[in-house]
Each structure stands twice: as C-alpha cells, then as structure tokens.
Amino acid sequence: MFKTTPTVRLLLHVANLTVIAFILLPLVAVFIGSIQSERALQADTRRVLPLEFTLDNFTIILTKGQQRGRIFDQATYLPDNIKSFYTAFMNSMIVACSVTFLTLLFGSLSAYTIARQRFRWTLFLMQANIVARFVPVIVLMIPLYVVMRSVGQLNSLSGVIIAETGFLLPYAILILAPYFDTIPGELEEAARIDGCTRLGAFFHIILPLATPALAACGVIMFIISWHELLIPLILNARPDFMTLPVVIASLVGDVHVFFNLMMAICLLALAPTVVLVALLQKFIVEGLSAGAVKG
Amino acid sequence: MSTPAVTIERAPRRPWYRREMSAGSFAFVMNVPTLLCLGLVLGYPVIYAAYLSVHRVGLGQLRSGVFAFNGWDNYSRVLEDPLFWIALKNTGIFTVVTVGSEIVLAVLIALLINQAGIWTSRITRFLILLPYAIPPICNGLIWSFLYSFQFGFLNRILFSAGLIDNPINWAGNPDTALYAVTVPYIWRTLPFAIILVHAALQGIPRELYEQAAIDGASAWRRFRHITLPMLQQIIAVILILRTAFAFAVFEEILAITQGGPGDATWVAAWYSYKITFSPPNNFGMGSASAFILTLMIAAIALVYMRFIYRRVTL
Fold first, then answer.
1. A10, A127, B47, B305: most buried by Cβ count inside 10 Å?
2. What are the tens digits of pLDDT across the range A196-219?
3. CB–CB of B288/B216 below 8 Å?
4. Looking at CA atoms only, how far is residue B5 from chain A in angstroms?
5. CB of A153 within 8 Å of any CB in chain B?
6. Which chain B residue has the Cα nearest residue A113?
C-alpha cells in the first residue's frame, strides 16, 4: 500500500513499539508491584525493578491469610475481604457463567425471531434493544436497590444474576441478530416440510449452525459480567455474596492496604479474562463489530 | 329419496400442546423471556427511578415504606447544587477528551496494524485486545499505583529515564487529575474502537488505492480522499457509542481519585452514587440526578438508532 522506504519502515517500527509499550505499561506495573514487599517499594522510590522478589502477596491471599510469610509476619491488620478470595472467585464464576448461559438462551430465542419474523412489534423490539443498550447502570441501581431491599433480595447471588442478565440481554441480541439473519431461511423450510415444528427447526437446525455467533456472544457476555462492579457492589454488602470486583473495590481507600497486596489480587482477578481473550480473540473481534453496526 | 350419509374422515384434533403454533404466536412465545427481562430489569426500574425522583426518599422512608410526594423539589435541589454542575462540566470535559483521543488514536493504530509488511505490526495486532480483558476496577487500581505520588510506577520510570528530578503528583493535583483519569479510560476502551476501524479498513476495495497510486497520489492524499471518507460511518458509530458510555464513567473514578482532589474529578455517575449510597442517603435526589443523566444519554441513543445503526453494514 505504501511505498516503504527504510525511513518509513523505521518510523512504523517505532510507532508499533510505542503502542506496544503503552498497552503493556499497566500490565508490567501490576506484575512488578505484586512481586515485591511493601518495604522494598518504600525503601527506594526511584527504582523500577525491585531489589528482591517474593510471592508472599499471593500466598497470603491464596491461603486465606493463614500463611503470612515474611512480609506480613508483623502485620496486625489484614482486611477481612482479602481472606474471602475463594468465595469471591466462586461467586464471580457462578454469576458470570449463569449470566452467560441465560443471556445466550434468551438472546438467541429473541434474536432468531427478530431476524426471521418481520412483524412490526419485532422491529420495535429490536429498536428497544438498541436504546436499552445505552441505559446507564447507575439509573437502574437506585430503583433496583429500593425494590430488592423491600422484597428482601439484597445479598443474594440470584438478585445479581437477574439484574445482570436483564442489563446485558439487549447487547446479546444485538450481537446475535445479524448472524441469524445470514443463515438461509430455506434450511428451516426444508425441515418444516419434513415435519419439524418451528421450535424443533430452531433447536436442531439453526442453533447448531449459529455456534460461532454463540461463542462470540458468550465470551463477550462472560467478560462483561466478570468485570461488572456497580450491580454487585450495590446489591451485595455481605462478604459471603461479594464478587471479585466488589472485594477489590472494598480495598480502595483502605489506608492500611498497600499497593503490593492490591496488585496481587488484581493480577489474580484479571487472569481468567486475559486467558479468555488470548484464546478466543477471533470470536471477540467478530462479536464486537457485529454488535456495534450490523442491523 | 334420501341422500346417503357421507362421513368425512377428519384427522383427529391434536391436543393444544401438540398443535403447531402460528408464526405470530411462535414469535411471541420465543420472546417472552426477553420481554420479561426488559420489562422487569430495565423498563420498570427506569420508570420507578422517575417515580422516586419526585418523592422524598431517604433511609427513614425506606424503612417505613412511605414516600411522600414532593414534586420537582429533588430536581430543583439537584439543579441548584453547584457540585452537580461541576460534575456535569467534568463529565463533559472527560467525554470530549476521551472520545476525541480515542477516535484519532483508533484510526492511527488501525492503519498501523494494517501494515502487512511490518513484522512489529503483527505483534501489536496480537496485543491490541488485551486491555479489553482487564476488569475496569483493576484497571483503576493499577493506574492508581502508576500515578502514586510517592511510590508510583510512572514516576519511577521517569526517574530512571532521567526525565524528572522531583516526583509528579499526577492524580493528586486538581489541575491535572481529570486528565490523569482520562488516560486509564482511554487505555481500557481503545481496543473496541480500533477493532471497529480495523474491520472497516478491510472493507475498502484495494483497487481504489492501486488506481490512486497509478495516478501518483501521495500517501496523505490517499488517506484524505479514500481512507477517511470510507471510515466516516464507522467513526460516527464510535463517536456515539463511546460518548454515551463515557458519560457514565464510574469505576476508574472510584479506584483512582474518588472524585478528588476536592471536586476535581466528580463526574455525573459518581455524583448520583455518592448522593444515594453515602450518608445522608438521599435516594430521591440521587434518582433525579441519575434521571437527568439518562435523559442526556437517551438523546444520544435516539440519534444512534435513527441515523446510524441501520445504515452501516460492514
């Protein structure tokens, strides 16, 4: 495309290295921050690489505060939430998996009918989904808190799952609908002539064909749900029901928690979705562009 | 003369659950879960937020369950609160800075990773989606470590490179704090914009560039007269989506500055959150301010639906 003279090539390499450095900067910071002690970080405030490495930050989180290691030997205070890492991880996993399953199920039922059955109200439903995607979480949270409080559903995983499913469903439909639109309608017609019901044709013929779209949508739903902070933060205040982002948010402003411990728990929390993104990059790219522009 | 009785064999009527649904009722049944979700989790709360915003709702009222109607009182109190206007102004600056830089950076980086002949571009393309995987709250905390005045990683790097002599208080200075929190947000949301632009670049016919090269058009002219016009629509999509989401920024503010120093990084969502969920817990005012934010975003959403979403196909 460009006539690439050596100077241009050099400039492009430099530009690439700049972008790569910008992308990696926070990840390098979280890694280096998590493998040193508070003392080492305070001893020399101008060093990039730590003088000594330690895994104590991870040990104390992963052993629920049992094995304190050298760093935390003298520590008299440990935030309780650090100790509930496994509970929070499991809660996050349950919420993210349930939300992914429910949004995929409801979303594909809906997206299929919107793509196939062109009624005035399905068109309206699609438009409602486009608008619904913009609703900011904060305006939902205040009334949801009041409602959940009055029906006694605060501090439960099911409340969070219902709220997140409803919140993410419009986006799932936007991602899935364009894909169902590309599957030729003759396939179900043939199946229906052979005696398949509408629902049977959907489950046996269409859904298996839509696997790539389901994968793309599913991985995006999982990631957004894993990252969601505001919904569980407001609905769940008891440690038993906190998800990982809520536990991490509870460390903000706690002056006794130092950066090293925070970086360690951040690294543990971001690992699952980083692995997902690395493995399923192709699907995410397709899902993101389908959800934004195709109609 | 009587006509012989003719009996017509009819197929036995199937029970209702074995009968084939009509297309219309099938479509309706398939959408029942979605309609329930949209109604209960999105529609009802938005309406209920409107209801709360015209009532006096505090913790005491929540306990007793009786909300007294107080008309536009919450709205006038929000609109008379100087902090609300500061939050709105900060949200505006935040949105303009983040969306503006994201569009420029997304076009530049998408062009960069589109260079097949440059081997470093392939590495960039592989890494580009990485920020999408980072939970926003972790992203915020990581940047608060980067920005830390005394122990911060950014200052360490600048010291080591010999660029500064004294530590810089990136997020603690009221003049720079708002711009400091835009960078983590841009970092996290840029992949989305780059991916959309990169996908749109694949759709530009190569012949256009070949023709332009034969005509001797410079690289700049090719970009200005071929690439940019072909990217116009996707840029509009990014502009609208990112504006709507940047308006509701929350996690990075919570993790890095909590609105501080002073009121330098109070944004609209943070205002609603603090008014509602920290003492004195004014749910009515919180709903009113959140509803104002929602109306502004709704206007953006309608523009998106009306003019952009259906026009573009990749």
1. B305
2. 888 888 888 888 999 999 999 999
3. no
4. 34
5. no
6. B27
Strands of chain B, DSSP E: 55-56, 68-69
Which of A80, A104, A133 corresponds to the end of one domain?
A80
Q: What percent of chain A has pLDDT over 90?
A: 34
Phi/psi zone of residue B216: left (φ > 0), alpha (ψ -120 to 50 degrees), beta? left
Task: Give residue A290's pLDDT band: very low, low, confident or very high (50, 70, 90).
Answer: confident
- List of chain A residues whose C-beta atoms are within 8 Å of the C-beta of residue B23: 117, 198
- Token pair, residue B137, equals 């709250």
Residues in B closer than 8 angstroms to A140, CB to CB, are 41-42, 45-46, 49
ipTM: 0.90
Residue that finishes a domain, picked among A43, A62, A80: A80
Sequence-ordered list of residues with C-beta below 8 angstroms from that of B63, at least 6 positions apart, any chain: none
Written as six digits, the tokens of B312 are 């573009």
Contacts for A80 with CB less than 8 Å, ≥ 6 apart: A239
- Between CA A106 and CA A93 the distance in angstroms is 20
Is the confidence at residue A81, as pLDDT, over 90? no
Amino acid at A164: E
Question: CB of B38 within 8 A of CB of A128?
Answer: yes
pTM here?
0.90
Q: So what's the pLDDT on residue B310?
A: 62
Question: In whole angstroms, how large is the CA radius of gyration of chain A?
Answer: 24
Domain that holds residue A53: 6-80
Interchain CB contact of A43 with B (< 8 Å) = no
CA distance B174 to chain A (A): 18
Q: How many CB atoms lie within 10 A of CB B189?
A: 23
Q: Are residues A87 and A64 in the same domain?
A: no
Per-residue confidence band for B312, with pLDDT thresholds at 50, 70 and 90:
very low
Q: Which two tokens stand for residue B87?
A: 């939050």
Q: Given an 8 Å threshold on Cβ–Cβ distance, is A139 in contact with B127? A: no
Q: Which residues of chain A make contact with B44, given a CB cutoff of 8 A?
A: 143, 147
The residues with which B148 forms a beta bridge, in sequence order, are none
Q: Are residues A43 and A113 in the same domain?
A: no
Asked if the model's pLDDT at residue B121 lies above 60, the reply is yes
Contacts of B246 in chain A (CB under 8 A): none
